[in-house]
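Deliverable D4.2, example record:
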Amino acid sequence: SSDREYREIQLSRITALFKSDSVEERLVDEQKRQLQSARAGEEGAQAEVINAKAQVHAAEARVVQAKADAVAARANLEVAQAALDKAQVFVEYLKIVSPYDGVVVKRNFFRGDFIRSADQQMTLPLLAIDRTDEMRVIVQVPDPLVPFTRKGAPAAVKIDALPGRLFESTVARVALAEHHETRTMRAEIDLKNDQNQLSPGMYGYATITLPSSPDALRIPTTALVGAATDGMGTICLVKDGVVKVVKVRVGRDDGSQIEVLDGLSRDDEVAVTHAADLAEGMHVHVLPAGEKPHSTSQASLP
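Output generated by the structure prediction step:
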């Protein structure tokens, strides 16, 4: 340091003066003591520097250790959170929650029963819950009416167990496909059950109001020879006093009249009673309807 260097120079000067008998020896000794003190101070400062550096290295090591501890703590936190999430999943398994409000209509197990898991061929449900605020009525629509049955059509339902009550609604949804065996299409009607008068499993009758085809002709259902199948029916026309048996494509049938979609013109005369007794080429005499058993009438627009 500068103090040590200064003391070394002073000692060198005093020593030179002492050798030339210019100063006393005690001054040389004093300069030596001051030099030794300066050197001791320098060594102490150097020791403090070394100690400070050691402390810096120790602090840096502690910082590194703290960072490592922080990483380990975060990892432990993630492990603990994963364990908590897993435990929460198992806790949720203790609850049986229905996706909708309803009434328990069937209970297959009771307190103390052993319940196997699904992977152990457990297929029987614990509970069966039916929604009661809204009921779904299932209607099988026959093949001839399938083209006219669409969502939103007005519908009315009568329940056998509730005589005198009429529940009005609309067609909520249709399958748009027929069952290959029954040749019927599934349609569903949703009914509000605010007063809890309806119960699952009830039977009744549904009436769906179908739209009429503006171009279709209507004839009495008695004019059909036999039953209509696959949307086709047989009728007897009278032309120039001779019976002609023809096939027609039929549509909506309300029980008293049936729509003829193709195969019949407006001016055709149709035998409306005892059509099954007529045969191709038979000669008949056309009389007003109701006067004779084999009467005719003109097809008319609805």
